Amino acid sequence: MQFNQIEGPNAAAVEVRRVLQHAKTGLLCVLNWRHELDRLLRGLDAFDYRYDDLMLISRHERIALMHRMTGRLNLELEGEGKWSNGIVGAALAINSGAANVILTGIDPLSKGHKYNSLNLSRMHRETDLLALQIFAEQRLPVFTADPHVAQSTNLALWPLKHAVGLNGHAV
Predict the structure, then answer these.
(1) pLDDT value at position 117?
(2) Do the Cβ atoms of 130 and 70 come closer than 8 Å?
(3) Quick one: DSSP state of residue 158?
(4) Is the dihedral of CA 73, 109, 154, 27 positive or negative?
(5) Which long-range contacts (CB under 8 A, 24 or more apart) does 123-127 make?
(6) Where would I find the beta strands (DSSP E) of the chain?
(7) CA 29 → CA 9, 42, 54, 56, 128, distances in Å?
(8) What is the pTM assigned to this prediction?
(9) Distance CA 109, CA 47 (A)
(10) What is the pLDDT of residues 80-122, one digit of tens each?
């Protein structure tokens, strides 16, 4: 997550909070937080988002991580040129030793976001596609659960026989 998703007034930020309201995650990574920790905690409490562990990642750490994982230096000076949170999350997981990362709902060629119906345009299309292609070229264990994304990015499709639903049962 980022500042705007926690406090932003625009439609996309409000929708993120609506989708995540009353939800919980194991490790919450907050990117580019520039305020005191109490402000972050109040913001998360406002939409009842819970976590087991919290990691704050600065802009410099994010840039360094993506440079390390892609070989591309991206100073992320404008919105369209930034890596999306989902791509940064995949890179962070691999860099932290994850055996496999399975992405779903991240389609760099789509025009919108899978998690909402606001039909807002998706930023980061070119940079995300580039990152996924680099991950595939490097044979990093990043997979997609979406067949059309596998075709457009060259990411391997995660076999459904390994997929596990939220209830712990195979899907």
Answers:
(1) 63
(2) yes
(3) P
(4) positive
(5) 123/79, 123/80, 123/82, 123/84, 124/79, 124/80, 124/81, 124/82, 124/83, 124/84, 124/87, 125/80, 126/80, 127/74, 127/80, 127/81, 127/82, 127/83, 127/84, 127/87
(6) 24-31, 50-57, 101-103, 142-144, 156-157
(7) 21, 16, 6, 6, 19
(8) 0.83
(9) 30
(10) 889 988 899 999 999 999 999 999 888 887 765 555 566 666 6
Tokens of 132: 């996924």
User: Which among 46, 26, 35 is positioned nearest to 2, based on CA atoms?
Assistant: 35
CA–CA distance, 39 with 34 (Å, rounded to integer): 10
Label residue 170 by pLDDT band (50, 70, 90).
very low
DSSP SS3 for 124: coil
| Distance from C-alpha of 28 to C-alpha of 64, rounded to nearest angstrom | 19
- What residues contact 120, with CB distance under 8 A and at least 6 apart? 11, 12, 112, 113
Contact predicate 141/120, CB 8 Å: no
Instruction: Name the 3-class secondary structure at 143.
Output: strand
- Taking the C-alpha atoms of residue 36 and residue 40, their distance in angstroms, rounded to an integer, is 7
Does residue 57 register a pLDDT over 60?
A: yes
Q: CA geometry: angle at 4 spanning 32 and 27, to 5°? A: 60
